[in-house]
């Protein structure tokens, strides 16, 4: 009934969609299997993409040729660039999206992608022969043969939903859990664990008193996520801010004895940085209020997402607590918040390619690896799809180093350090974040995406044109001089010291508060250099000049640290035989089996002394 597919992707969430699209666009014959064709790319939690560090991930996915950035732009209802008051390394794009339009856009783009087939049915197991995956089994007893398999099961593996004292099987509200795969993987020798995540109640926007809240509009000049020609928004929908209060907290505490989190029924670890409202008021008892964001679920729907009010308490407690909040006194609840527990597999069982170590040609991506968030899932799906395709092509896997991409940081953290709680990306996790900015993702990654057959020629040409314009602008700035009489009025206006003599424009541009486009208004040569240039190229040229010292320092540090990544460890190296290693180092190294000294140095429990010992054994 089925041909032998190059890549079978199990699950059509954010990871599965990116995996299927990437493999198909690299010429693979792909099967995307999902339990429900109507929930492809469902935004299970908040209707938003991006945010701190997460926005960088979406920009990197887009630069490589993935779809998430385009889908986000086409379904966006609001755009904000976060952290504009800080340096560009911290700037992070974030959008509110139309939930229904987001899923529809993803599905239509997949349907229009050649080489992608679909199958609607639960996948209940994998087929393994001689240590290599050869297909998947369906609930109807069918077998879909495959050269490689990518598992992206999200929260569905033995998923269990909790609302107060009620508990029932499910991977998402209104959808059943997936069974069978966990048992197969455990029988093959994989270690598994349990994690949890949660979501807030949804309410009827017609029942909200918006005038009692603070409006939060989008940016005056909204941007986009994709480096293609997607169009910025001409109109936007605002979000609103309100706060809990002492009465809200009192009502919530009254339900603690019925909370699955406090009575021990939930054992899975939840995301540290996205706690439930009951967890917040328990852990931060000294605070008399917590901020909430009311986010519209789309252009036309009346459904509202109450961001910051994730809850697993009984529905009557949630409802009563909501109505104690300013602006929500008459709120009508569409559905209560809930927690979902699910199986995951510690990612230390993977190679950096996201291929499992126990079973060849089997890849894991997304929440099955212990991560949380659409963006974290999507970038893993992209890399698993790329590397599954490259495995079929008999090519070396694509693995990013920590100074190349946030994607590289995320996967390196997961594989080498593992995670005891749902992993979420932050800028603080990236030691080279000045290099890994959202604005230069295309300059960093598009050539590579084009080289492996994923990024289109149009993307590649756009990147080359931007790079050329950046260089032209920088050259003009370097060769232009400015006189005091030209720009002293401007400098005085922004509170910067006047010039004492004629100087190069570059020395003025590196001053705080000085903007390139402002400077060009007073210097005709600069105005001519910027005329007709891409706004992104202008911004890029300015950032590279202003932060040149920081960028060079970080590059030098990266070169120094990454030398360890070029010292390779033989595949079957026996760490147990090296008596000079610490006991913990021997144990961790033998378990993780790093392929380089750089990878070994990032394993939790491996000391600098252990690395020095290994350097001797590697002939260094």
Arithmetic mean pLDDT: 94
In DSSP terms, counting alpha (H) and pi (I) runs of 4 or more, how many helices? 21
Radius of gyration: 26 Å
Q: What helical percentage do the residues reach?
A: 25-40%
Q: Major sheet: size, sense and barrel closure?
A: 7 strands, mixed
Classified in CATH, the superfamily of the largest domain is FAD/NAD(P)-binding domain
| Secondary structure: number of strands | 22
N- to C-terminal distance? 56 Å
CATH topology of the largest domain: FAD/NAD(P)-binding domain
Structural description of this entry:
The radius of gyration is 26 Å and the shape is globular. It starts with a strand and ends with a helix. It is α+β, with helices and mostly antiparallel strands and 620 residues long. The strands form five sheets. Strands 1, 2, 6, 7, 8, 9 and 20 form a seven-stranded mixed sheet that branches. Helix 2 runs parallel beside helix 9 (374-392), helix 2 (54-64) packs parallel to helix 11 and helix 12 packs antiparallel against helix 16 (524-530). Strand 8 (132-138) and strand 9 (143-151) form a beta hairpin. The protein folds into three domains: 5-199 and 342-451, 3-Layer(bba) Sandwich (FAD/NAD(P)-binding domain), CATH 3.50.50.60; 457-559, Arc Repressor Mutant, subunit A (Orthogonal Bundle), CATH 1.10.10; 567-617, DNA polymerase, domain 1 (Orthogonal Bundle). Helix content is 35%, strand content 18%. The protein has 21 helices and 22 strands.
């Amino acid at each position: 009934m089925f041909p032998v597919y190059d890549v079978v992707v199990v699950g059509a969430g954010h990871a599965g969609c990116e995996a299927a699209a990437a493999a198909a666009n690299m010429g693979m014959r792909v099967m995307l299997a999902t339990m429900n064709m109507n929930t492809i790319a469902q935004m299970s939690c908040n209707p938003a993409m991006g945010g701190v560090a997460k926005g960088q991930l979406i920009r990197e996915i887009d630069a490589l040729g993935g779809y998430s950035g385009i889908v986000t732009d086409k379904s966006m209802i609001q755009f904000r660039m976060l952290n504009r008051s800080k340096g560009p390394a911290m700037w992070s794009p974030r959008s509110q999206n139309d939930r229904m339009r987001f899923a529809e856009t993803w599905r239509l783009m997949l349907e229009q992608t050649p080489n992608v087939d679909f199958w609607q049915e639960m996948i209940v197991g994998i087929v393994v022969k001689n240590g290599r995956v050869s297909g998947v089994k369906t609930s109807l007893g069918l077998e879909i043969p495959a050269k490689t398999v990518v598992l992206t099961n999200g929260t569905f593996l033995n998923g269990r939903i909790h609302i107060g004292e009620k508990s029932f099987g499910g991977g998402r509200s209104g959808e059943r859990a997936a069974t069978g795969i966990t048992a197969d993987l455990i029988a093959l020798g994989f270690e598994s664990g349990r994690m949890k995540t949660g979501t807030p109640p949804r309410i009827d926007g017609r029942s909200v008193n918006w005038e009692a809240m603070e409006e939060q509009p989008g940016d005056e000049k909204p941007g986009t996520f994709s480096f293609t020609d997607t169009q910025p928004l001409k109109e936007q929908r605002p979000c609103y801010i309100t706060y809990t209060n002492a009465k809200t907290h009192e009502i919530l505490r009254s339900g603690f004895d019925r909370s699955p989190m406090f009575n021990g029924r939930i054992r899975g670890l939840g995301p540290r940085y996205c706690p439930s409202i009951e967890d917040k008021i328990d852990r931060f008892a000294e605070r008399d209020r917590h901020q909430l964001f009311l986010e519209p679920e789309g252009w036309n729907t009346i459904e509202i997402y109450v961001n910051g009010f994730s809850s697993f308490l009984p529905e009557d407690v949630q409802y009563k607590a909501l109505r104690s909040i300013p602006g929500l006194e008459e709120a009508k609840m569409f559905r209560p918040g809930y927690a979902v527990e699910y199986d995951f597999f510690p990612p230390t069982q993977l190679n950096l390619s996201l291929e499992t170590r126990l079973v060849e040609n089997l890849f894991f991506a997304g929440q099955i690896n212990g991560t949380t968030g659409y963006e974290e899932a999507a970038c893993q799906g992209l890399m698993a799809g790329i590397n599954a395709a490259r495995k079929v092509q008999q090519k070396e896997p694509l693995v990013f180093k920590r100074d190349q991409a946030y994607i590289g940081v995320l996967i390196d953290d997961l594989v080498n350090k593992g995670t005891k709680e749902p992993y979420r990306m932050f800028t603080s996790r990236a030691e080279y974040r000045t290099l890994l900015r959202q604005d230069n993702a295309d300059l960093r990654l598009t050539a590579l995406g084009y080289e492996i057959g994923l990024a289109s020629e149009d993307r590649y040409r756009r990147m080359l044109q931007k790079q050329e314009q950046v260089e032209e602008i920088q050259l003009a700035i370097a060769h232009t001089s400015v006189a005091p009489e030209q720009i002293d009025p401007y400098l005085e206006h922004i509170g910067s010291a006047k010039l004492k003599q004629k100087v190069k424009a570059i020395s003025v541009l590196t001053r705080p508060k000085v903007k390139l486009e402002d400077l060009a208004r007073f210097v005709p040569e600069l105005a001519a250099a910027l005329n007709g240039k891409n706004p992104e190229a202008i911004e890029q040229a300015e950032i590279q000049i202003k932060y040149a010292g920081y960028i060079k320092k970080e590059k030098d540090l990266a070169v120094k640290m990454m030398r360890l990544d070029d010292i390779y460890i033989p595949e079957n190296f026996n760490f147990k035989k090296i008596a000079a290693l610490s006991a913990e180092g021997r144990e961790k190294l033998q378990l993780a089996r790093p392929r380089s000294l750089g990878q070994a140095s990032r394993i939790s429990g491996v000391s600098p002394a252990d690395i020095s010992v290994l350097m001797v054994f590697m002939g260094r």
